[in-house]
Design goal:
By secondary structure, this protein is an alpha+beta fold. It is built from 14 helices and 36 strands. The strands form eight sheets. Strands 29-30-32-31-33-34-35-36 form an eight-stranded mixed beta sheet, with helices on both faces. Strands 1-4-5-8-7-6 form a six-stranded antiparallel β-barrel.
């Protein structure tokens, strides 16, 4: 059991004396005496470090960063060098204050300069000029830390000459991918940048907000005072202190790989994609390699590889051992601070969509491998190389192609501008070609495209419900509907359109009637949830959308390349959030009259994302939409812009048909 208290400080018994009394306590002391000794031990620990804990005051700066509103209150810092070097949390300075003042424990105020920032562990180094050496606290070696030991969070933000403190235990080590220790002592902006102590007054670490899912200065701030707090081990800080003193900003290192298994904790570290022009690619790593060691450390799980990389900095070198075709291959690579934005390459074809067949089906066994070409884009690399509709692409970059999924993954090993050898089958003849890949196009598709698949016979037996379908997530009060083509056949993969309404009246019958002919023609399933508040969507309803999509994918055959979230006005803003939060499943974002909300994800080789953005010239959102399109394009996402004329409105029937064709071409290669 732990106690969280704000301690009064007076002269206390030395810690060693308290420890001796604790040994005698079962014989000579009562419960009240033990509580008193415990309190005195905490106070003595804080007293020991008090001269090294400073109050930091900032002036000016931004009032808001992201969704975090910054006040004008003081923060905390910890002396790490007698000559005036002070460490603090990077969170305290992301509002870019115009000036920084440090108040020492003796009451002196000194102007401070921000020397450098560690963007990996989210701490900053400050420097003040001193009249006499500052007191540097004793630190706890990382190997001496034990889960369950007392932990005391200390800050100096309140008025008075004593620090403020909270008490808990050290609840975990090697957290946040090996960069932090965890405590249940109260951690908040009042002690960010201050020390986390052991019962002897030694520094375990520097308190900072962190999150395992994000790597920004504000990540984790929402957890303050929640019983989940983090600190950077003091030993980590001292190791990089010489670099920070030189004014060198430090960044987390990356190598440019994506793992095959999304669950890093259970999945093996098998590389699913290796970014072109990345350290991994330049070192010779390849798709399909299984990483078995990093700097001599065995890595049976993907999470262990991530931890070994995440705790290191750009510029550091690591050695990796991988298994490739059952042979061990060792490589050395140097981590970098960032990768160039990835841009998906484009060959210039639409594939004929394969029908689903069981692996044990004799037809599947006899089915020839390769990708049959449905359509060749004009002036594309495919057309320039001589590919024609009806050809079957059987080899790409020297490797056989089994189907469109294989080809879509394999092309991600390249960049626009790369020249690749191809082999096609035309009739009974195999022809070798070459193509110079291009970027994904942003133009709208032509009005007429060849059929996307061969005709199929109606399925036998009773299948899942088709037509208008009412849906419900048991734990949520929202209503939802879907339209599934009445001639739905589970052998045919269907795209999904998640329609998120705007502030207009929600009429499920009208929505379904509007989309029915488009769904029937293009093998689409419409999913239309209703927000609890008719005028707006709430962040909690992101879970609703995710669970409804899971219902659809669990009960129907879904084409993963054509899952689109579409919305108007407030529904469009919600659509962006859905796509950014569920990147693994969404392949297209189609919004009408809506600004981007949230930060767009980086372009990813395995999880391609395309944008259809429509707005009118006189729309209040027009300027924001233009800025968003520029930002998305800078990140190498393809953006199709649709001009709706002067006045803001939703899409008409012809424009909806155009949008449906855009969705129909999202499986382009």
């Amino acid at each position: 059991m732990t106690n969280r208290v704000v301690l009064p400080y007076s002269m206390c018994l030395p810690v060693a004396a308290v420890a001796i009394l604790y040994l005698l306590a079962p014989v000579s002391l009562g419960a009240d005496d033990l509580d008193t000794l415990e309190q005195q031990a905490f106070s003595a620990a804080v007293d020991r470090v008090a001269e090294s804990v400073v109050r930091i005051e900032t002036v000016g700066g931004l009032e808001k960063v992201g969704r975090v509103l910054f006040g004008t209150g003081p923060t905390t810092g910890l002396v790490v060098d007698k000559d005036g070097y002070i460490i603090s949390s990077a969170f305290n300075f992301i509002n870019q204050p115009s000036s920084i003042l440090v108040r020492l424990p003796d009451g002196q105020r000194k102007p401070a300069q921000l020397v450098a920032t560690d963007h990996n562990r989210m701490v900053v180094l400050l420097k003040i000029e001193v009249d006499k050496p500052l007191r540097v606290p004793e630190i706890v070696p990382e190997n001496d830390m034990r889960v369950g030991q007392w932990a005391i969070g200390v800050g100096r933000t309140f008025e008075g000459d004593r620090p403020n403190a909270s008490v808990g235990v050290l609840s975990a080590v090697n957290r946040i991918w090996g960069k932090a220790i965890q405590t249940d002592a109260a951690v908040s902006p009042s002690n960010y940048g201050g020390p986390l102590l052991d019962i002897r007054g030694r520094v375990l670490g520097v308190l900072v907000p962190l999150s395992p899912k994000a790597a920004k200065e504000i990540a984790g701030v929402e957890w303050y005072d929640s019983g989940i707090g983090f600190a950077i081990p003091a030993e980590h800080v001292l190791k990089v202190l010489p670099r920070l003193k030189k004014g060198e900003d430090l960044y987390p290192g990356v190598i440019g790989i994506t793992f095959r298994d999304r669950n890093l904790y259970t999945g093996k570290p098998v590389i699913a994609a290796c970014r072109p022009k990345s350290p991994a690619r330049e070192a010779g790593l390849k798709t399909g390699d299984e990483i078995v060691e990093v700097d001599g450390m065995k890595t049976p799980r993907a999470a262990q590889v991530k931890q070994q990389i995440s705790r290191r900095y750009a510029g550091e070198k690591i050695r990796m051992a991988v298994l490739r075709d059952k042979k061990r291959v060792e490589v050395e690579l140097e981590l970098v601070a960032k990768l160039e934005p990835y841009e998906h390459p484009f060959l210039g074809i639409l594939p004929i969509r394969s029908m689903r067949e069981d692996d044990d089906d004799e037809k599947a066994k006899k089915k020839p491998t390769g990708v049959k070409v449905r359509y060749v884009y004009p002036k594309s690399p495919a057309e320039k190389s001589g590919i024609k509709p009806g050809d079957v692409l059987v080899s790409f970059a020297g490797k056989p192609v089994k189907g469109e999924g294989t080809l879509r993954r394999r092309i991600t090993d390249n960049l626009p501008g790369d020249e690749v050898p191809l082999e096609i089958r035309r009739g009974s003849e195999n022809i070798k070609l070459k193509a110079q890949l291009a970027p994904l196009p942003e133009d709208l598709p032509p009005k007429e495209l060849p059929p996307a698949r061969a005709k199929v016979e109606p399925g036998e037996g009773e299948g899942p419900q088709s037509g208008a379908v009412s849906l419900k997530v048991p734990e949520m009060k929202n209503d939802a509907w879907a339209y599934v083509p009445e001639k739905y056949n589970p052998a045919v993969p269907h795209g999904v359109v998640i329609w998120l309404h705007g502030p207009d009246k929600f009429d499920e019958k009208a929505i379904i009637a509007q989309w029915k002919p488009l769904c029937d023609r293009h093998d689409l399933i419409l999913l239309a949830p209703k927000s609890a508040d008719p005028k707006k969507w709430s962040p909690e309803e992101l879970t609703l959308v995710r669970k409804l999509l899971h219902k659809i994918t669990s009960n129907y055959t879904v084409d993963a390349a054509r899952v689109v979230v579409h919305g108007h006005a407030s529904g469009g803003r919600m659509a962006y959030q859905v796509a950014f939060r569920d990147r693994a499943h969404i392949r297209g974002v189609a919004v009408v009259d809506a600004n981007v909300t949230g930060r767009p994800p980086k372009n990813d080789p395995l999880h391609r994302l395309a944008f259809y953005v429509a707005t009118a010239k006189k729309s209040p959102s027009a300027a924001g939409v233009a800025r968003a399109a520029t930002q998305l394009r800078e990140m190498k996402h393809p953006v199709t812009l649709k001009d709706l004329g002067e006045e803001p409105r939703y899409l008409n029937a012809d424009e909806l048909a155009e949008l449906a064709r855009w969705i129909d071409t999202l499986d382009r290669i």
